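Now produce a polypeptide, keeping tokens residue-aligned:
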Amino acid sequence: MKNTLYLECASGISGDMTVAALLDLGADLSVLEHVLNSLSIDGFTVKVSRVKKAGLDVCDFNVILKQENHDHDMEYLHSNLDPKPSSSMCSSKTEPARGEDEAHTHSHKHTDTHHQHRCLSDILSIIQTADMTSRAKQKAEQIFTILAEAEAKAHGTSLEQVHFHEVGAVDSIVDIISAAVCLDNLDITDVIIPVLQEGSGTIRCQHGILPIPVPATANIIEKYQIPIQISQIQGEFVTPSGAAIAAAIRTQAHLPESFRILRTGLGGGKRTYERPSILRAMLIEPCGTQQASKDHETIYKLETNIDDSTGEMLGYTMECLFDAGAKDVHYFPVYMKKNRPAYQLNVLCTQEDIPKLEQVIFRQTTTIGIRRQKMERSFLPREIKTLHTEYGEIQVKICEADGCRYAYPEYESVVRICRKTGSAFPVIYRKLQEICCRQCL
């Protein structure tokens, strides 16, 4: 079963709002505390409490820093002080939460040689040495890489050379790692984010007064084509950390026509604007007619003819396209003008993935044009299961059609056993299919 998360970003999104909403949704606080206690950084205390926002009871996740580590000086946002020079973008924290009636506090004391400025490799090292699952590590690394790319572009430097003040600050590290841990703990497989609501005007940052959305946030929204709506309310609703989280976890842009709400979590932000800063997270399940039509969807086909790229180049392009989210990639031979032999590249994808997949094609091949075609497709409901067999664990794909179930061993599982035993592919495939049928059908 897929665990589908819907994030309603009517008041924007930030790192602490995301963590609070996921904790309120049911993420295990003890699991999060264990991970945070294993981080090779010090100077912070985590406080989880209940606060009131517009009369609603919401969860608040607050990273309280020691004075020397407090890189997010919100005095600059609400005073006439001149901003101090630094390499950071706008801050993502404000004054401590108010209206708390129940709190959980956890302190952390470790050895840390970087108090304010860190590069991406420093942060990735912190993640790698933390006691967390590989899936949570991968998601945290992805979020930070997205943020690093946005900051590097904003500052006009390379990914390797950019040093983060805000991104490298302790509270941002804790927020992003905590979000990855909570998503993993809830076993979220799909995340629906239709749109990000942003405020307007300007915000005073360490660099001075910047327009909203701030450059790093705008860079992320541009690159990952996340829809955004600008309201007339003055203030920053979407922080760079929040935008990076949204870009990393967003898999769908549209809600089902009808669905059941299984659980709801409310996460409160620290800022006080005309619109209360609340991020609502819902675990949902499609129902009714939508469930029956789940095997139909709209996809797009990207198509281009290439007659001057090598086989190695095209092979690598296929790998990059799959890594970027393509549903399917294939080539077939064609003859072009002047009878030149060539290949036609076809990519199946969602509408949201078109910009980044086209970027891959333009970057990795010699093509100068790509055709798009909107298509409807039908597909069988399917799931991947792990079975315990005499050959070890194998992955099997189970499909349903007209009330019948079909089981197919995954290619990688068959190949692994063939290499281990020296048996022929057809022999192992038939044996595994028999096992699949006995255990799954």
Observations:
- The chain is about 30% helix and 30% strand.
